[in-house]
């Protein structure tokens, strides 16, 4: 099939590349000509495991192409994916200006039947708005489909190629059959393609992300209570995670969730509720708790240094909001570093992938280290903000030699408390004895 993907951000690029991998011809459209030129040369603009291999293979095979011309993409594709940004607006709602702006252009340019697919995470009713925006000028038939993505950063390629489910929101038999034909190669193992109306499909994505954010936040609340009463959240996590009604995923406490999805989508659903006079009280609490959780380590650090952080050198391991990505959007590390900098601390940071993106925000305020051990040299403490695998089994003898003081503040509970104490460290983690 011939596919056009409008927008080559995280979702668009993974979508286009993975659809090309199953033999489709794909044109990805982006307004940034320099980015388009780089992609044509084989340069992947984001870090995502395994994406580079598929990207290179499909470019060489001629199945994956790039252009800055919307006209070219629309004339080529029979199915048009909209993978455009829906950033958080000032009031917490999703900003649909990019989506609706392109929809307006589509109506002016299409000359034969197209399936327009909302791949971006969008509020309930967006498909209807896109339909109206295109209809104003369209002189041919078209259908609008809601097809939310469920891609986890760090696992996006696997998630797309082997999805647990595919949700298609459409009341058009023609569009539904085309979408099923497109996705059938990805569900040969029997995972479902779920057909529903457009509004239900749009809400499915928000409901999924809000539920997972709530699950994470609940465990953070339990962890904070554990510290007050002397319980161990790790033991509790195992105790409840073995209950099949609960499950063991998303039960790891830490310094809050971040990234491009959970913070934005939870706030967007909260705002959408208010727009129809419904108050999501649970989401109000989730947002409030998560904001506090991002800096939950700060009081522990401040207490250790007796309120004086001026010129204290703090090493930070992990800057991305989660491992296996270079995405720093809403990363808890950012919130903690800002508080430390405000108190005059000197920060030496390291992340395997995210330092270029952090440098765009912080510039020369931070010392960017070439390795995890370089960050420790003459540091007064180590703070861990992201659970990269490389941080799980460090050379503790080397760590002790490099640090001025053997103290670790661990926001991701990477180490067993008894073992790390035996190594000679003072160790502060989340919700553990």
Give an account of the 3D structure.
This protein has helices at 10-21, 33-40, 51-60, 70-76, 97-109, 126-135, 156-161, 173-183, 198-229, 233-241, 262-275, 281-293, 298-304, 332-342, 355-362, 396-402, 417-422, and strands at residues 2-6, 25-29, 64-67, 79-82, 114-118, 142-146, 166-169, 193-196, 313-317, 346-350, 367-368, 381-384, 407-410, 426-428. The chain is α/β, with parallel strands linked by helices. Strands 3-2-1-4-5-6 form a 6-stranded parallel sheet, with helices on both faces. The protein has a 6-stranded parallel sheet with strand order 11-10-9-12-13-14. It has a two-stranded parallel ribbon with strand order 7-8. The longest helix is centred in the middle third of the chain and has 32 residues, at 198-229. The radius of gyration is 23 Å and the shape is globular. The mean pLDDT is 97.
């Amino acid at each position: 099939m011939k596919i056009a993907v409008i927008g080559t951000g995280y979702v668009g690029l993974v979508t286009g590349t993975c659809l090309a991998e199953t033999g489709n011809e794909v044109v990805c459209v982006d307004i940034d000509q320099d980015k388009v030129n780089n992609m044509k040369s084989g340069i992947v603009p984001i870090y995502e495991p395994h994406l580079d291999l598929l990207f290179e293979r499909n470019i060489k095979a001629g199945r994956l192409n790039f252009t800055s011309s919307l006209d070219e993409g629309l004339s080529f594709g029979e199915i048009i994916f909209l993978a455009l940004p829906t950033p958080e607006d000032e009031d917490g709602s999703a900003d649909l200006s990019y989506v609706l702006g392109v929809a307006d252009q589509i109506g002016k340019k299409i000359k034969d039947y197209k399936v327009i697919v909302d791949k971006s995470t969008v509020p309930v009713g967006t498909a209807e708005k896109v339909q109206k925006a295109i209809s104003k000028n369209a002189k041919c038939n078209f259908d609008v489909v809601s097809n939310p993505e469920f891609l986890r950063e760090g696992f996006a390629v696997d998630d797309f190629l082997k999805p647990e489910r595919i949700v298609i929101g459409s009341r058009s038999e023609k569009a539904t059959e085309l979408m099923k034909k497109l996705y059938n190669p990805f569900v040969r193992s029997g995972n479902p393609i779920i057909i529903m109306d457009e509004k239900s499909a749009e809400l499915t994505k928000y409901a999924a992300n809000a539920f997972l954010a709530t699950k994470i936040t609940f465990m953070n609340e339990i962890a904070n209570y554990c510290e007050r009463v002397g319980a161990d959240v790790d033991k509790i996590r195992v105790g409840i995670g073995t209950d099949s009604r609960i499950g063991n995923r998303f039960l790891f406490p830490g310094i809050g969730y971040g990234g491009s999805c959970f913070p934005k989508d939870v706030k967007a659903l909260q705002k959408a509720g208010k727009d129809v006079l419904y108050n999501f009280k649970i989401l109000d609490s989730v947002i409030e708790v998560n904001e506090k959780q991002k800096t939950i380590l700060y009081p522990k650090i401040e207490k250790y240094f007796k309120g004086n952080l001026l010129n204290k050198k703090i090493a930070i391991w992990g800057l991305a909001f989660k491992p296996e990505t270079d995405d720093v959007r809403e990363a808890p590390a950012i919130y903690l570093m800002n508080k430390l900098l405000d108190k005059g601390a000197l920060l030496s940071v390291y992340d395997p992938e995210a330092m270029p993106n952090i440098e765009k925000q912080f510039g020369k305020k931070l010392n960017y280290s070439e390795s995890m051990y370089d960050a420790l040299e003459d540091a007064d403490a180590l703070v861990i903000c992201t659970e990269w695998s490389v941080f799980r089994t460090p050379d503790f003898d080397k760590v002790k030699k490099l640090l001025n003081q053997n103290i670790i503040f661990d926001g991701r509970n990477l180490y067993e408390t008894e073992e790390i104490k035996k190594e000679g460290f003072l160790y502060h983690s989340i919700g553990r004895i």
